[in-house]
Amino acid sequence: MFTHQRELRIEWGDCDPADIVFYPRYFAFFDASTGALFEAMGCSLRDVRRQANQVGFPMVDTRSQFYKPSKYGDIVLIESQISEVGHASFGIQHRLFNDGKLAVECSEKRVWAGLNEQGELKAQAIPDSVRKRMLA
């Protein structure tokens, strides 16, 4: 399944008074990493939204485990991988490494979504062109 890596420098605003990353910031890192993963697949959110009535891929579940803190100034590596592909949903696994050691794991489940005729947000089948990229 498709995998992407990106480096990130921990900024002062990411940290709490103990000088470690405030845990909600990790979810922002992983959300941005999902966007970077799709960009690397050649399928940006802008491209998705250009398709008829497509909104994007909202998250319906996320879970994390924290093993090692990261601090201001640390350079971390986030590895993101498509972990499963269903009809209208897919999973992503993120692993954040600090100094070569696993610091945080996160799993996401997202749904391919668009607007129906009534303008309501509904799950839709993942387009075949995107599915092929996810499975590459």
From TrEMBL:
<dbReference type="InterPro" id="IPR050563">
    <property type="entry name" value="4-hydroxybenzoyl-CoA_TE"/>
</dbReference>
<keyword id="KW-0378">Hydrolase</keyword>
<dbReference type="Pfam" id="PF13279">
    <property type="entry name" value="4HBT_2"/>
</dbReference>
<protein>
    <submittedName>
        <fullName>4-hydroxybenzoyl-CoA thioesterase</fullName>
    </submittedName>
</protein>
<dbReference type="GO" id="GO:0047617">
    <property type="term" value="F:fatty acyl-CoA hydrolase activity"/>
</dbReference>
<dbReference type="InterPro" id="IPR029069">
    <property type="entry name" value="HotDog_dom_sf"/>
</dbReference>
